[in-house]
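HUMAN: You are asked to prepare a plain-text protein record giving the amino acid sequence and the backbone structure tokens, both parts labelled.

ASSISTANT:
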Amino acid sequence: MLSQYDALPPGLLDLPASRLGEVLPGPALIHLPGRRQPALFVSVLLHGNEDTGWQAAQSVLRKYASAELPRALSLFIGNVEAARVGLRRLDGQPDYNRVWPGSEEAHPAERAMMLQVVDAMRARGVFASLDIHNNTGLNPHYACVNRLDQTFLHLATLFSRIVVYFIRPRGVQSAAFAELCPSVTVECGKPGTPGSVDHAAAFIEACLHLSEFPAHAVAPHDVDLFHTVATVKVPDAVSFGFDSPAVDIDFVPELDHFNFRELEHGVRLGRVRSGSNARLQALDEHGADIGARLFDYQQGTITLRQPLMPAMLTRDERVIRQDCLCYLMERIKTPA
């Protein structure tokens, strides 16, 4: 059930993500006035263990506690229940960043709630949308867009010169809001990483001060643009680990150090246990499994068949099961 507020609930800015449930009964959409309209939309805590966005929002709102915001702000606070226990999502819950309009997942209550958020912002008008995340692997700060539109790229490069274009998975917040306004997802590294909250807060404030988007194209030397070509998953029936010879797939211990490195053909990712037919699943933008085209398994060693760059590789086994092992990307040219 979505709660909507036209002012900050008392005490909210004093609470860490784990205690938001003391004030909020669940997901909340908070509308705050500002000098400019329409509002900037900011989404935080779609994953309960990713609290940099919430801390950044707190930092900005404390700064303007006794002053008018440069632009109206609508703040969506997502999975309050999972945040209470520091998990991405609770068992039995859907992923809150897979149930927005366009989702392929069947979770009627959560899909209806996210549609309610989109409809509320469509009715009010929205200037731009920021969805702020952390991740569990060793990744730089980067931005993601669902459209190769210059306004989207301008918004993304306010956060980072590293920008990833993707259209899958479906049902993400940024894709739903791309129908309304320039929209971006930003990845702020692991929770608690020094500087992450300051970076996210500075990004929110820069967007609040932005009066309009530049008319000119983003210069190619100002952006490193990548395209996600596959989402890599470990099938549910396959056991896996890191430096664990008894499992079906034994990944190299340093796997998460490969993030945002342009890996060459033949790079070793792990081994398949002798006698096992386990294979990684790699879904392309159309949902087809292209794993056989991307991975080689000769003599039980898992290697890349072609040069690619991974993102969001993690050693967190719960996250791998709940989401994916990683995304594989290729560098693309900046559109004219």
Summary: The chain is about 20% helix and 25% strand. The radius of gyration is 20 Å. The first helix runs from residue 52 to 63. The chain has a mean pLDDT of 97.
